[in-house]
Amino acid sequence: MDLGWSARHLTRRQLLRALAATGASSLAGGAGYGYLFARHQVQVTRASLPVSDLPGNIVGLKIGLLTDLHYSQSVPAENIQAAVELLMNETPDLIVLGGDYITAFDTRFAEPVAEILAPLSAQHGVYAILGNHDDENIVPASLKAKKIQVLKDARTQISIRGEKLEIAGIRFWTRQPSQIAQVLRGASAPILLLAHDPRRLVEAAKLGVSLLLSGHTHGGQVVLPIVDALVTRARRFPVLSGITQQGHTTMFVSRGVGTVYLPIRFNCPPEAAILTLERMADV
């Protein structure tokens, strides 16, 4: 094939410049799409989670998970409202909120985001934990005012068709195995642990937790294959999103709803997660 004079006579430097310009153009286009469209396109993610020690009467329990809302000047209320509506349309049996309702302790948004979350309701309740962007007072008080139970290094027990399910929630800063063990002390299986940071999988597995639900990673927010793998390794996250297992412990990590630092999503749509519990096969 004759490529013509100009292509045959391109120098290496000219070729690299051309490729760089093409790459920069593609990157700019992707960033524009991520800002204008992708970060607003909240979708429902449905997943079946295998859970160890799951009583037969709890099989099929449907949990709705919202996390990392990051209501702020760069995350519009409409995105969070869309996530709430999508979640409620799925009629979950239980709803959990995974933290980071605001960004960088900007408590001006605490009461407004709680107001957006107020329509959330489920037969077995709505439970929340705090993330690393949330303060310890105004955010939990705002959530409690909307009848959302906030678990700050605390545990509760609910009854589902005559069977017990332990729900425990830990603060982002609760990391020591002894601290987590204190929260779980006296609990019976199965245990649903809410931890904003998915790195708590290590401790959860050692402590016999059946199911761990997390967020924090935003699924990577801007997902490029090589970069994605590097972030996972550098931060020592088990995964950036989706399901993983360690021993008898299953974890689901949500991509979340909002954004932080850069108001962009790429290959990583915001989500409202609907998680259906099933029995784990023998490990």
Count of DSSP H/I helices: 8
The CATH topology is: Purple Acid Phosphatase, chain A, domain 2
* CA radius of gyration: 21 Å
Low confidence ranges? 1-28
**Protein structure class:** alpha/beta
**How many beta-strand elements?**
12
In N-to-C order, the SSE pattern is HHEEHEHEHEEEHEHEHEEE
C-alpha termini separation:
58 Å
Indicate the overall shape.
globular
Fourth-level CATH superfamily: Metallo-dependent phosphatases
- Main beta-sheet annotation: 6 strands, mixed
Output the strand order for the largest sheet: 1-12-2-3-4-5
For this entry, what is the oligomeric state of its chains?
single chain
Counted up, domains total 1
CATH first level: which class? Alpha Beta
Features:
283 residues; Purple Acid Phosphatase, chain A, domain 2; 6-stranded mixed beta sheet; 8 helices
